[in-house]
Design brief:
- The protein has 633 residues and is α/β, with parallel strands linked by helices.
- It folds into two domains: 182 residues, no CATH class; 380 residues, Alkaline Phosphatase, subunit A (3-Layer(aba) Sandwich), CATH 3.40.720.10.
- 45% of the residues lie in helices and 11% in strands.
- Strands 2, 3, 4, 5, 6, 7, 8, 9 and 10 form a nine-stranded mixed beta sheet that branches.
- Strand 12 and strand 13 form a beta hairpin.
- Helix 2 packs antiparallel against helix 9 and helix 19 packs parallel to helix 22.
- It is globular, with a radius of gyration of 26 Å.
Length: 633
């Protein structure tokens, strides 16, 4: 009995070591519910491990113990390393986008090297079992094994205790209860539930699936403004198929459409150049080094409170920008397949308006199946490296200037209006003057800046983007097309390979690691319009509805998670861990704190809206939701 109790205490100690070390290395804050949740689950896990490593003969017990602790060390060390590389924790749903990692193996090995100290720390329990193997006694006599029957009671008792504790938080929004039963957000789950509990959830949901439910709420009515013009709703007449999934039907029924406004049709008939810029951030913009970006960000529509929430690197950012939906790692692989119906996709909509549409990318067009998901959005004319784009594809990263110079002739002489989509790559990490060819190309322009190497190299990369836009604008002007062309540009994500300290070296204000690190500029510009500043809060998934309204496109605002930034609807920014920002304040989901006037009703209301947008977005992909909508022609 003493051996079994001793082994159980060792398991509790090592599991506590894992969770505590991980929390100390990864998070700035702790809260009581996280500590309690983690500890109860540690007890449950220790009972299971003790049972599995004491029930057989000594050799098998020891082998099982080695296997279990090797897997635990790999899991904790892997989460630590993946977070440092992708700024997101690992979940099994990420296997669908694994080539994002395998295509950058050089950076992966560097991430492992830079984080080797943490990896070693997480392997200490496993190492101790090997080095001091004679000190750990797994030779449990037959009569002693009878005591293991107690664990058949302790295991279900501990999991019942865990669920009873979760139920004490049942009425709290984004609580440990919500994360365990109602919400799928691996990043927040790890921070609030602990690594062990969130790993169990991830495995279970990967095998059996999981769908969030729509909250049956009605949006707070917008205060009517006194105006001579009464605007119609941005909606179309349609019916839902009898087989429409409940998540789609409920979202539509619980969402109030936005209204048309004074800017509806403002750009109707004009050409559109839509750019998602790799790792672009306003911190790289200056009148001296990036004058074109400076001009575009300080004229046209100027969005003062625009954010690009980070979610799984480029594919998550491009997803938000092109679909108007909220990203989830479990649906990005489905999006990649190109099998989802997108009748309201960017190119499809503009083709229906008589536009010629084109898409370009100056890295491999096959990477992450970009050739497939762009086609699902209606882009039939796609050029990229190894798919018809005649640029130097052997350097890294490739040149945005070269991409523009090799593609503008495809559309610039068209009599019909055109839509040209660009996904750039010149701003990609790693930001050094050794391996990054765009940083090397523009090195002399930044050599005297009073910053460390990585921020200077980052600015050098964005000079290439600036020169590409300058070239494009000059060519449009030479052909007499500039006044009839609208340029939209947003980032896929902030430059996450820069540390917060490096970002703040070149930021005009001190940014925090949760909210302001995602603050960015949205370019929405036409040479003939007067500058219009917009104070409303907005994010990447709002861009598509905004563009559709500006171009006078009939669309239904209830079929997107994003909202027209120029409409009368309140602005909302949703971050990757379900934190959010509105005009009333900032809500931190990890600490459950709100910076504005404390109103539990308001916080719950916005959290419900966030959950509905996430559930609807996922439902579109898991059920191919748009196919159930039948327009009344």
């Amino acid at each position: 009995m003493k051996k079994i109790i001793k082994n159980n205490l060792i398991n509790i100690g090592f599991l506590t070591y894992y969770e505590l070390l991980f929390a100390l290395m990864m998070f700035d804050t702790f809260n009581k519910e996280t500590i309690i949740s983690s500890f109860i689950y540690i007890l449950f896990s220790s009972f299971v491990i003790t049972l599995l490593t004491n029930i057989f003969n000594e050799k098998l017990n020891r082998i099982f113990n080695y296997i279990i602790y090797f897997v635990l060390s790999i899991w904790f060390a892997g989460q630590f390393t993946v977070k440092s590389f992708l700024d997101s924790f690992f979940s099994f749903s990420m296997f669908g986008i694994a080539d994002q990692v395998t295509s950058f193996m050089g950076e992966v090995f560097k991430a492992i090297f830079y984080n080797l100290y943490g990896i070693i720390l997480f392997f200490i329990p496993f190492i101790l079992f090997i080095v001091f193997r004679k000190k750990f006694d797994f030779n449990i006599l037959k009569k002693e094994k009878n005591y293991l029957l107690v664990y058949l009671i302790l295991i279900p008792l501990s999991i019942c205790s865990y669920r009873l504790y979760l139920n004490t938080k049942k009425n709290e929004t984004l609580s440990v209860y919500d994360l365990y039963y109602n919400i799928n957000n691996p990043n927040l789950a790890i921070q609030k539930l602990g690594v062990l509990s969130s790993a169990y959830l991830d495995i279970k949901r990967s095998i059996f699936g999981f769908e969030e439910k729509i909250k049956n709420i009605k949006e707070v009515p917008i205060e009517e403004k006194t105006t001579e013009i009464v605007y119609d709703d941005n909606k179309i007449e349609f019916v839902l198929d009898d087989n429409t999934p409940e998540v789609i039907r409920s979202y539509i029924e619980n969402t109030t459409p936005s209204k048309k406004n004074e800017y509806t049709g403002f750009f109707e008939g004009k050409n559109l150049i839509f750019v998602v810029a790799e790792s672009y951030s306003e911190i790289a913009v200056s009148p001296e080094l990036t004058p074109t970006l400076y001009k575009l960000t300080h004229s046209g529509f100027v969005f003062k409170n625009f954010y690009v929430p980070y979610y799984l690197s480029t594919i998550g950012g491009e997803f938000q920008a092109l679909t108007g939906l909220y990203p989830d790692s479990s649906i990005l692989s489905t999006w990649r397949s190109g099998n989802t119906s997108f009748p309201y996709g960017l190119a499809t909509i503009f083709k229906n308006k008589g536009y010629n549409t084109y898409a370009y990318h100056n890295n491999s067009g096959y990477f992450q199946d970009r050739n497939k998901y762009l086609k699902s959005l209606g882009f039939d004319n796609f050029k990229a490296c190894y798919i018809g784009l005649d640029i130097n594809c052997e350097i890294w990263p490739q040149s945005d200037v070269e991409m523009i110079d090799k593609t503008y002739t495809d559309y610039i002489d068209n009599k019909e209006p055109f839509l040209a989509y660009y996904m750039t790559v010149s701003g990609h990490f790693e930001y050094t003057f050794n391996a990054n060819m765009m940083a090397v190309k523009n090195k002399d322009l930044v050599k005297d800046l009073p910053y460390s190497e990585k921020p200077r190299a980052y600015i050098a990369c964005n000079i290439e983007l600036d020169r590409a836009l300058e070239s494009l604008i000059n060519k449009l002007e030479e052909k007499g097309k500039l006044d009839d062309t609208v340029i939209v540009l947003l980032a896929d994500h902030y430059p996450y390979s820069l540390s917060l300290t490096e970002i703040n070296e070149i930021s005009s204000y001190e940014r925090d690691s949760l909210f302001e690190i995602n603050h960015n500029s949205l370019i929405l510009w036409n040479s003939k319009m007067k500058t219009k500043e917009i104070e409303k809060y907005g994010m990447s998934m709002d861009v598509i509805p905004t563009v559709y309204n500006l171009f006078g496109i009939d669309y239904d605002s209830r079929l997107f998670a994003g909202t027209d930034l120029l409409s009368d609807k309140d602005g909302l920014v949703i971050l990757g861990n379900r934190s959010w920002i509105t005009n009333k304040g900032k809500y931190n989901s990890t600490t459950n704190t709100f910076s504005g006037e404390d109103s539990s009703e308001y916080i719950e209301y916005i959290n419900n809206i966030v959950q509905n947008k996430a559930a609807f977005s996922k439902g579109i992909f898991t059920t191919n939701g748009y196919k159930y909508i039948r327009e009344n022609n």
